[in-house]
Amino acid sequence: MFYKENSLKYEDYFNLRLCVGWNNFSREQTLRALENSLYDIIAVNNERVIGMGRLLGDGLYYIIVDIVVAPEYQGKGIGSELIKRLLDYADSQTPFGSRASVQLIAEKGKEGFYEKLGFKKIPHEYCGSGMRKIIHKEALN
Question: Which residue among 22, 63, 83, 113 has its CA within the 20 to 30 Å range from the CA of 71?
Answer without folding.
Answer: 63
